[in-house]
Amino acid sequence: MTTPHAGHPRRWSILAVLILALFGIAMDNTVLVTALPVLSRDLNAGTSQLQWMIDAYVLVFAGLLLLSGALSDRFGRRRLLVIGLGLFGLGSALTPLVGSAGQLIALRSFMGLGAALAMPPTLSIIADVFPENERPKAIALWSMVSALGIVVGPILGGFLIERFPWPTVFVINVPVIVVGIVAALRIIPESKAPGRNPLDPIGAAFSVVALVGLTYGIIEAPGFGWSDPRIAGSLIAAVIAAAGFVLWERSRAHPMVEIGLFRNLRFTAACVSVTLSMFALNGNLFLVTLYLQQVRGLSPLETGYRFMAIAAGVVVASPVAARMTTRYGARLTTSLGLAIIATGMGLVATLGVSSGDLQVLGIMFVAAVGMGMAMTPATDAIMGAVPPEKFGVGSAVNDVTREIGGALGIAIMGSAFQGAYAGRIGVAVAGMPADAAGAARDSFAGAAAVAAQLGGDAGAALLGSARTAFVGAMDWTAIVGVAFAIAGVVVAAAFLPARSAAAGGAAPNGEPASLEPEEPEAETAA
What are the pLDDT digits (tens) for 194-241? Predict the structure, then answer.
């Protein structure tokens, strides 16, 4: 049995620096949302360009995560963190020079590169400097700050965009990044895998093509349709590249990712749990955001203020999840978190056209509590299943599952919602001209535009029908989310460890030990 290390003496200071770096990166994922109308006006950007300002960042970020994790293990985690923060900060500082939508899209891609290099080292350094009994608490704080950054982004962006030029929403990151770089160089110790295993450029290329293709297909599917040649081609390319990645990595003496790790059912179950947590939560937020802005008529900033309920839920749940993970293990804590997420999704189905803020805030709070409960133990299980020399790759796998799960939640539940909405409003637009009926069936915004053109009682009736159809479709789609969250409960309850390493000792292969007997195949070493 391996004796757990006592932890770095300055580990809590190190965590503070990592949290500072993480907050800026997490916030940048959503800070742009409230600035889109201003960007459309100032940069003469069309709808497609506005979408790519967001998607370019996500595509580069998600596509390079595995490569970044492998590079950090080989060349040094602090080094990759500092380089990533430097690139991210440089991109933020250059935004005042942007004069066109294309330039901002290119700059957002560059910032995605910086974020991809910086993100995996944050979690791998935590795993390296904290002992196993303190790691759940550190990961809980890491998860909490990541969620807070996502929530604070739209609020801060809305506040700044109303008072200052739009580049301010990016430039505000620069001082934070500079402080983070200086503090990282002074406080964070360098760590890397022992030896110098050869690089794996072919495996890296396969992973980038697979992740970019999958992410692009998922993000764009709701707009183009799943059968569109661009989407089908992207997803097929992703599957082929993923298969090539697996075959290539299995043939390598020093693979970038140990494919055998996924035969460890605990590791795979933790990845699935993270994916389904983000799937259900992002799908939930997608529905509620549309509801608040379209049915309730709130502005993006007013919607952002209501998202503080999410921050409150995560803040409440994260420390509880850390204590439960240490005492009871990942199985109970993750299963409970996913069950609470399922409850939150079920409560979405109770919303009506005239539901008040208290009901909406309560639903978001419950869903956020579930996420805070589920993410900490699942992430800890992922990091606990990989050897120290692969912490960077383990962190990258965790980040990939978060990104893919969130994108799938929006894409699949968005498509389900669109189909349900079109079916429900069909009767109301049956006698209209084809163009008007098509616009009303496509979206609530289209129905509102047609209603404004009609005016009078006819317009009011159509708008009322659109609101009713929207809420009915949202309620039905929420039940789809419940099913996915319950599937996560089943996976977590079946395969995650019953007790943490801190509570029950470590298994010989470095996994958290269970106090219950396991099936032999669940103990396959990575």
Answer: 766 677 889 889 989 998 898 888 888 877 888 899 999 999 999 999
Contact criterion met (CB below 8 Å) for 495 and 522: yes
CB 176: neighbour CB atoms within 10 A? 18
With beta carbons less than 8 A apart as the criterion, state whether 8 and 63 touch.
no
Rounded to an integer, what distance in angstroms lies between the CA atom of residue 9 and that of residue 265? 34
Tokens 């009506």 correspond to 352
For residue 513, the model assigns a pLDDT of: 37
Question: Do 227 and 175 form a contact (C-beta atoms < 8 A)?
Answer: no
SS3 label, residue 46: coil
How many Cβ atoms are within 10 Å of 126's Cβ, its own excluded? Answer: 25
Contact present, 70 and 257 (Cβ < 8 Å): yes
The one-character DSSP state at 292 is I
Q: Three-state SS for 506?
A: strand
Which of 312, 310, 283 has its CA nearest to residue 364? 310
Strand partners, 506: 512
Residue among 413, 430, 417, 419 nearest 465 (CA): 430
Q: How far apart, in whole angstroms, are the C-alpha atoms of residue 93 and residue 71? A: 26
* Cβ atoms of residues 78 and 188 within 8 Å: yes
Q: How far apart are CA 289 and CA 363, in angstroms?
A: 12
Rounded (5°) CA angle 356-360-366: 150
Q: What's the token pair of residue 74? A: 């080989």
Residue 484 CA to chain centroid, in angstroms?
16
CA–CA separation, 60 vs 49, rounded Å? 16
| Helices and strands per DSSP (H, E), number in the chain | 21, 0
Distance CA 462, CA 447 (A): 7
Other CB atoms within 10 A of residue 273 CB: 31
Please report which residue ranges of 94-225 form alpha helices under DSSP H: 101-129, 135-161, 168-171, 173-187, 201-224
Look at residue 353 in the predicted model and tell me its pLDDT: 87
d(CA 169, CA 165): 8
- Who contacts 372 (Cβ-Cβ below 8 Å, separation ≥6)? 140, 143, 144, 147, 313, 314, 315, 316, 317, 318, 320, 321, 337
Q: What is the pTM of this model?
A: 0.80
Q: Which of 358, 357, 370 is nearest to 485 (CA)?
A: 370
